[in-house]
């Protein structure tokens, strides 16, 4: 029997947390490795394709799938979210005299 990594669910309980700063209007893309088969080359292509993506997240997903998987691709899961500024009524008031956050 060939040696493999640990069985699914037997590794560390949680993956490490990832924190990043994102501005309103930023496009956040989550994808499985089916979108980038050749790691270094395809990650650079993916980054360039995300930079080119504009409009609604659905349009960005179509653009990325067409650009990264021209032959229809394999097993790919893709999700895109564009961050919007909160409506003024939903924002917290700025701290001022007598106000705290």
UniProtKB/TrEMBL annotation:
Occurrences of domain PPM-type phosphatase (ranges): 3-83
Gene3D superfamilies: PPM-type phosphatase domain
Domain of life: Bacteria
Pfam families, A to Z: SpoIIE
Protein name: PPM-type phosphatase domain-containing protein
Source species: Streptomyces malaysiense
């Amino acid at each position: 029997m060939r040696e493999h990594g640990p069985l699914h669910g037997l590794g560390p309980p949680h993956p490490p947390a990832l924190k990043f700063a994102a501005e309103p209007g930023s496009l956040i893309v989550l994808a499985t490795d089916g979108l980038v088969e050749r790691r270094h080359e395809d990650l650079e292509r993916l980054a360039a394709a995300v930079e080119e993506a504009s409009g609604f997240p659905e349009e960005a997903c179509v653009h990325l799938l067409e650009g990264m998987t021209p032959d229809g691709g394999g097993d790919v899961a893709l999700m895109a979210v564009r961050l919007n500024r909160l409506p003024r009524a939903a924002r917290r008031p700025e701290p001022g005299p007598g106000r705290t956050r």
